[in-house]
Write a structure and sequence with these properties.
It contains 10 helices and 17 strands. By secondary structure, it is of the alpha/beta class. The termini are far apart. Bound molecules: alpha-L-sorbopyranose. Alpha-L-sorbopyranose binds next to helix 8.
């Protein structure tokens, strides 16, 4: 009989990377869970140490830190950058602080994972790309957190497109539908303030479908013709930590909503396909429905995040050639081998673990991760074009497409 005592942290003697995470709310919790599970279900060449969590509210930050096993808490993000035991800075704050934190972290020699959208403007995103590309030359890596790329069914869809199973792409339909703002009494959180969030549904969830379409097709949007709308223009002043809950924190005082509630736009891809996009927080009954459909000369793909383990695949012809419902949980499917036997479904949080594992692997192996800050800039340019088009009676607004993307 053998007894083996494992001292906590012993495994860390191998190769580890210290993570300093800034922000502790919805995204902070999702990322914390990702970092924790990265080592439990996968074997990246470097393991993460949950070294420090930073947040201005010491009590709230400490509570999240305790729940997820962070080793320490700082109340000023600058202190995280000064720490030698931090290798990776993970930015989970609202968009208005991304540029300052990311540029400073890269200049301090830290690898950076930054939540989406990359920034609140093209100009900020360009500064972040410049800093990232300078750092890259010194082996410092950066990534933007478009985490849905790492949903197995999405990664599988990309591989099918790359294998030519869809053929020449002719149509793309992309929707991101939520309904958490339908209640006009839900409070004016930071997500509804332009100076904090940059834009509304457009940047928060429209950014995801723009990135997903470009990721899966390997093409870019060449221009847009857009409409945006703010359905509820004033809301009770108040905030909730994650900016998302539908009720409970409002007061009698009303404040202006300064972002869009919904955005719809037409586009064309570099390969010539026609594309439609819709991002809304007012799709009553839809909670987190990312719906994508791609029709090509050889077949079609369809996905809905509310049934996220499934990819609908159509190929072939003849009277029996409908869509096949592929449950993307086989060990051969992307990321799945790290988890459970086939059919034991994955959820929203798993994408954050895949993101952490991929980032740790790329950092340890000296590779450039995707999506890069430049990929984030490409999305930011589309967001800006949508806003300009919507402000000019939907006039067709070109988007520069000369940036390489992953
Ligand atoms: C809120 O609309 C939100 O949490 C987004 O900010 C996330 O990026 C998305 O994953 C879910 O919805």
């Amino acid at each position: 009989m053998t007894r083996i005592d494992l001292t906590p942290g012993e495994a860390d003697d191998a190769s580890t990377l210290g993570v300093g995470m800034i922000g502790y709310s919805f995204m902070g919790r999702a990322h914390s869970n990702g970092w924790r599970n990265a080592r439990s279900f996968f074997t990246p060449p470097a393991l993460p140490r949950l070294t420090v969590l930073a947040g201005r509210n010491a009590e709230a930050a400490t509570q999240t830190a305790r729940q997820f096993g962070w080793q320490s808490v700082e109340t000023d993000w600058r202190a995280v950058l000064e720490r030698e035991d931090v290798d990776i800075v993970d930015i989970c704050t609202p968009g208005d602080s991304h540029v300052e934190i990311a540029v400073a972290a890269l200049e301090a020699g830290k690898h950076v994972l930054c939540e989406k959208p990359l920034a609140n403007s093209v100009e900020e995103a360009e500064r972040m790309v410049a800093a990232a590309e300078q750092a890259e030359a010194k082996g410092i890596r950066s990534m933007v957190g478009f985490t849905y790329r790492r949903v197995p069914a999405i990664a599988f869809a990309k591989s099918l497109v790359e294998d030519g199973r869809v053929g020449e792409i002719r149509h793309v339909r992309a929707q991101y539908l939520q309904d958490w703002l339908v209640d006009a009494s839900s409070p004016l959180s930071w997500r509804l303030q332009k100076e904090r969030a940059g834009s509304g549904a457009l940047g928060d969830i429209g950014a995801h479908i723009i990135d997903l379409v470009q990721f899966i097709t390997g093409e870019q949007l060449t221009g847009v013709s857009a409409l945006t709308e703010t359905f509820v223009r004033q809301r009770p002043v108040g905030d909730v930590a994650d900016g998302l809950r539908a009720s409970g924190a409002g007061s009698a005082e009303m404040g202006d909503v300064t972002v869009d509630d919904a955005a719809v736009f037409l586009s064309r891809l570099t390969g010539g396909a026609l594309a439609t996009f819709e991002a809304t927080r007012f799709a009553t009954g839809r909670k987190n429905a990312i719906r994508l459909e791609i029709n090509g000369s050889e077949g079609s793909l369809a996905f809905d995040f509310e049934d996220m383990n499934v990819l609908q695949v159509h190929s072939g012809s003849g009277p029996e050639a409908g869509f096949t419902r592929v449950v993307v949980t086989e060990p051969e499917h992307p990321y799945v081998a790290g988890w459970w036997p086939a059919g034991h479904m994955l959820g929203y949080e798993h994408g954050f673990t895949h993101q952490a594992v991929d980032f740790l692997t790329d950092v340890a192996q000296g590779r450039s991760p995707h999506p890069s800050f430049r990929d984030g800039l490409v999305v930011q340019r589309v967001l800006e074009a949508v806003e300009r088009s919507a402000a000019a009676e939907s006039v067709w607004t070109p988007v520069a497409t000369n940036d390489p993307t992953h």
